[in-house]
Write a structure and sequence with these properties.
The protein has helices at 6-12, 30-43, 47-61, 91-94; strands spanning 23-25, 28-29, 66-70, 74-78, 84-88. It is 42% helix and 21% strand. The protein has four helices and five strands, in the order H-E-E-H-H-E-E-E-H. A hairpin with a 2-residue loop joins strand 1 (23-25) and strand 2. The chain is of the alpha+beta class. The protein has one domain. It is globular and about 35 Å long. The strands form two sheets. Strands 3-4-5 form a three-stranded antiparallel β-sheet. The chain has a two-stranded antiparallel sheet with strand order 1-2.
């Protein structure tokens, strides 16, 4: 459940909100994964296609990342250090 929008969060934080450079698997940061997902979205025919492609890639390429569960618009994945990433699987998940 999302309690606050990204735009509202940006207004509450001092300075610039940015994607974390913390590693989610050895040698790969959250920012790197976000960049990969954006690249896939550019050439994908739909958000669903981008989601399926990205999830397939991260689960096969980055073995420590494990699927945790699905929501209506995002899926959650567990990473090293107790971190969690959520991946949008619909337009609502992107928003």
């Amino acid at each position: 459940m999302q309690e606050i929008s990204l735009e509202q969060l940006k207004k509450l934080l001092p300075g610039k909100l940015q994607e974390s450079d913390n590693e989610v698997v050895d040698g790969v940061s959250f920012k790197n994964l976000c960049d990969e997902y954006r690249k896939i979205q550019v050439w994908s025919v739909s958000i669903k296609h981008a989601y399926d492609t990205f999830v397939s890639k991260i689960l096969s390429k980055y073995e420590p990342i494990k699927f945790v569960g699905d929501g209506s618009s995002r899926s959650a994945f567990a990473c090293i250090g107790g971190k969690c990433i959520k991946v949008a699987k619909s337009q609502a998940g992107v928003a």
